[in-house]
Amino acid sequence: MSQKVENPLIADMYARLIGRPYARFLEESVFIRQYLWINRRLVGVGLVALVIVDILEVLPPLYLKNAVDVAVEKKPPVLLLYFAGAYLLTALVQAICRYGWRMYLIRASMLSGRDLRNRLSRHLFGLGASFFDRSRIGNLMSLTTSDVEAVRMEIGPGVLVLADALFYFLTVPVAMFMLSPKLALIAFLPLPFIPWIVIRNEREINKRYEKVQESVANISAVVQEGLAGVRVIKAFGKEDEQVALLRSKGNELMKFSMHLARVQTSFGPTLDFAMSTGMMVLIFVGGYDLIRGSTGVAGAVTLGTFVAFQRYVQKMVWPMAAIGMALTFYQRAVASSDRLKKVLAERSDILEPNPDSKRPSTKMRGKIEFRNLRFRFPGASSSGAKDALSGISLVIQPGERIAFIGGIGSGKSALLSLLPRLYPVERGMLFIDDIDINDWPIAELRRNVGYVSQDVFLFGETVAENVIFGLHDWAAGQSSRRALEEATALASVHEDVMGLEGAYDTRLGERGVNLSGGQKQRITIARALIMQPAVLVLDDALSAVDVHTEENILSGLRSRANRNTEVISAHRISTVRDADKIVVLEHGQVRQMGSHDELIQNQRGAYRKFYQEQRCKEELEGYAEHIGVPQ
Amino acid sequence: MSTTPGLEHYLDVEEKDSRRADPRTLRKLIPYIARHRLILMLGLLVMGLGVFATLMEPRIFGWAVDLAIIPKDEEMLKKLGLGYLLVVIIRILSAISQAYCFELLGQRIAQDLRCEIYEHLLRAPVATFDKNPVGRLMTRVTNDITSLGEMFSAGFVSMVGNAILVVGILIWLIVLDLKLGLLSLAVFPVLAAITAHFSGKLKIAYREARSRLSALNAFIAENILGIRVVHLFNRQKLHQERFERINQWYSDAQISTVRVFALFQPAITLASGTAIALIIWYGGGRSHEGVLPIGLLIAYFTYVLTLFQPLREMADKWNIFLSGMASAERIFSILSWLLEPGARMQNPVGNSQKSGAPFRGDIEFEHVWFAYSGEHWVLRDLSLKVQAGERLGIVGHTGGGKTTLISLLLRFYEPQRGRILLDGIDIQEYPLTDLRSKFGVIQQDGYLFSGNLKENIGNDLQDLLKTMGMSIEALGLPEELRERASNISTGQKQVLAFARALAAKPQIWILDEATANMDSATERLLQQGLSTATVNRTVLLVAHRLSTIRSADRIAVLNKGILCEQGNHAELLRMNGLYARLYRYQAAKEAQESHIV
Fold first, then answer.
1. Are the Cβ atoms of B301 and A311 closer than 8 angstroms?
2. 3 state DSSP class of B535
3. For the domain that residue A166 is a member of, what is the CATH number?
4. Strand, helix or coil for residue A42
């Protein structure tokens, strides 16, 4: 057993030069390696094809060399036919292999991109509402498109370019040295400068490119604001100022773009120049050799060698440029993987219950209990942030209608959004059917809690598809149709739908029909009702519906068969006054609780004040509605 | 190409429309190019030099063989070596400067069109913005302009430069040696056919991939926006499956672009291989016989090999060219939209107005009818006269037409019937900016622009605030406003909107629910500032709260687009109509409030 002698200096050098960079590489390239490995067959075949192409690259200049030598040295002309045939054959094999590497390697990268997108999408679908609250949609979009694309580009073209360059270096210079070591050395004279040029340029290009990107973003911001605020611009006659602003931002972009162009446009030609000087040296040195030496002697430089060298030197330009490209691909992929990793490391704050915890045994009845509930939005900075809700204690019996009322920021929406567990709730604070909400399997909880949010969201599908959204086992048929129409009738939107040209098959959204705010809102209510939820939660979901229709919907809900618990929040008194119990919230706390009649008695209560304000407004509106319109 | 049923509706409509390229678009671009013809000429000149140098390089190499190496002439070799260096330098410099020139050309044209399209949009009728989502219009000014610029800087230089190079080489080959030239050209028609075939296929494949990508993007955007709904209805798995289907669909399209490419490149390899083989056989044979100088043979190899590079590049850049053209088409379609009537009107009303007469501020609506669409009249036969210097209150419930009235006055929309007079002259006769500069409008949602506060409102912001008894510090205003003024409160926004209007020194004030979100102390200060600013000025006041309107000289009550009552507060109360009812409710409410508090 030999004890390895550790020299601290060498160990340090090792760590610095190899250990740490290698560790960083492993860390950076995790996705790239993962997906290369998954598609290793395709990648393997592609690389083999690439190696064949690169090895064969050595041959054509040799055929040219021999052809020239045949012509110069007057060897039998039939040899020319051989070389021509060999050239053609090599081209054929190369063609096949080129087809091969593209089909395998690039396809592998596209499959990797697809898989990575799927993985990302699956991950995003699993994250809780709070993640989306704090993410910008633009960022998430660019994650699934441009960031995945950057990783994919590294897996395909990136690996390809790198491998190509490496094989070129392994093959072409070897052939050159074998032909003439002296000429090879001369031709490679400018070579050491090339990585330097490449790296320096890369760095400069990246730096300048960022400026350009920033400038582009500025322009977008100006345009976005200008178009969104076009009425103000018109009202103040500031069109010229706005255009001048855009012009100055555009000039900035132009400046930075040209700044970038100065480096970028000189990059390729500089490399080219470096190689061309090699070529020139070749003409001089090789030429003198040819003039002074004897042509045609084996081992010495022949005219053919000279020609082959010319071809080889030209071929070396590509791998040089390729290294620069490979570097760019890699850097972009690393930056994108960083962002991807960060999102993929996000964990949902809504977790499925422990399998061994107490589970609901029967269908949900709809009893809800808040026990001294406290809630703070996740992600709200821990220090100094206020609780959105605190000290809420309340029991709602199955079949009751309970209403929450309060001003903006009183916590109504926060409270209601906890019922379908959109946000995490601490254990022991919220119970449904006496079971902690955290112990309900999420899918089952949400199937039984029909939650209608204040912001209406419908998908760009047909009306019917939107209403049956939650019914996964929907089958078209008479009874299904009846269920659909019952739900929409209950939400007072059936007649509106029938008034559309395509009735229930009308497509909604940007490329379809645009419904009014109230109609959309009622469709979201129907979407929840068709599930026959044990608990129906309407979070200010009647705000865009007129008083009369609201009345219809609310009384319809009361009289429907097997009606269940209803939790409602609203700004309007008319929405809440019929509730069994009304809770007035203020700053996240319960201020008053009771029926409408009880609450109205309290002269100094918040509810009464609220009521009076509302009554004036409602009567006013009601009155205005009833004024006859003279023609 | 297969389609997956049920996914087509995610395809972008515009993406579908852009599948046809229109030569007329190219013609429309000519004036924009002509504006920068010096750059273009310079670029083309340099490009020509570059092509010449590229053509000379192999020739010099050939001469080195024929004139120096074989005759063993060292002096000649030196000359040719230096000549080679010169040619290389010319080629390199031309490559750099032509790329620079065309980048500049692209940037300039992009900048011109960017400003033009933006100005056009800003001067388009307000109804345009009701119909088109801001996002889509934005794409025109940003992405489409960028791809148009790229068409000039990358697509154009490559297409033209390479085309010249190809033609140059072809001519050169024939000039140097007719027979060998024709022989090596034999593959060229085949090659051209291959290129045309594949670039056509590639175009289709790319388009398909692009439109499927935008379908994928639309799906992602929709699902991120609706993520809560997806969660609430337990549809995660279903939507993931759907995503995977679209993703597969996109991936298929991507792969079919690879397939086309994978066939294209080898086809070029084969064609060039054939050409070289022909030269080895025929050219080599003739050199062998001593008919063809060996150096020329070597030059031929190089020429034929370089011939294929520009062809491949042309096929690559064809795409940039096409998408640039599609963008140009979309840009020009916006530029063909009608502007607001009067947007570019230059001559002041002078012709019909006694010159020099000061603006007074009389407003008159004459039998105005207006509907945003069809026959849904928002204003019906409205006639209303406001005397210069009068304070007119406008009341009525939501949807009564109050805000529409103001939009018409500012000519955001045109009435279908009737007309509006300002100082006795139809507002249509005023240049738009002239007209609008007479009004100071403060709206409930006063849109503020991001950036430096003083630049936004005016350098004398502090003074303006002082006239209202406020200051930047007291209001706690930040120096920079963020997008959508998200770093200040609604009350602060309204104060700023007020200051902005004040800075414009308007002749007529329009206050549209301007003080709705303010605390009463701030409101009182604002009212004071306003009453100083509006001395002898016409004022239109729109409000829900009658207390703010009560002091107006006259009050107009709008209901369902009809002017149903007008008069001063006392008169209206006596009429005992809608206003009286409104007033009594609010008075009762206010009394109640003061009683409670």
1. yes
2. coil
3. 1.20.1560.10
4. helix
